[in-house]
Amino acid sequence: MIIDKTQNAALYSFGEAWTKAFAFLASLTPESEERKYSIDGDDIFAIVMSYDTAAPELGLYESHREYVDIQSVLIGTERFECELTQRLEINDPYDAAKEATFYKRSNAGYTSVDVTPETFVMLYPHDAHLAGLIVGESSARVKKVVVKVRKSLLGL
């Protein structure tokens, strides 16, 4: 897992796919349309979405096999919890159509971070993550982007 400011993306040497992902992130504004964007076919794509944050007890951790996630917020703040996949109990086995495995949340993850505009979280396949969580006392609307990059393009 990497947590950093988007302005620091060039500090990481993941190659051309990384550069493309962050060039796309830099092109987004809070007014960007909510939809799926093709950046480089099925190898790099993004989804812009909005939702209300929720209590962690209502969620499941997820992980991915073929893609890493680079997630950032355009409007609002959301909390992420992360846990190593091997420390969790599987709730729903890997589904290739969803490109995800889902895990039970038995307790808070080993890491939690509040993601705000101009920050990003990059999640490796072994990072189970639960996003969209309440920060503070009540739910709030968040608009975010998830960039999916085929892990092989990052040398993983």
Task: Summarize the structure in words.
The protein is mainly beta. About 10% of the residues lie in helices and about 45% in strands. The protein is built from one helix and twelve strands. A six-stranded antiparallel beta sheet has the order 1-10-5-12-3-2. A hairpin with a 4-residue loop joins strand 7 and strand 8 (about 100-105). The longest helix is centred in the N-terminal third of the chain and has 12 residues, at about 15-25. The protein is globular and about 40 Å long. It starts with a strand and ends in a 6-residue tail after the last strand.
SSE blueprint:
Layout: E1 2-5, H1 16-27, E2 36-40, E3 44-52, E4 61-63, E5 67-75, E6 78-84, E7 90-95, E8 100-103, E9 111-115, E10 119-123, E11 127-133, E12 141-150
Antiparallel strand pairs: 1-10, 2-3, 3-12, 4-8, 5-10, 5-12, 6-9, 6-11, 7-8
Question: CATH superfamily membership, which one?
Answer: YhcH/YjgK/YiaL
Strand order of the largest sheet: 1-10-5-12-3-2
Unreliable residue stretches: none
Number of helices: 1
Average pLDDT taken over every residue: 94
Instruction: Tally the structural domains.
Output: 1
CATH architecture: Sandwich
Task: Calculate Rg over CA atoms.
Answer: 15 Å
Strand content: over 45%
How many strand segments? Answer: 12
Briefly note the CATH topology name: Jelly Rolls
The CATH class name reads Mainly Beta
Largest sheet: 6 strands, antiparallel
Structural class: mainly beta
Helix content: under 10%
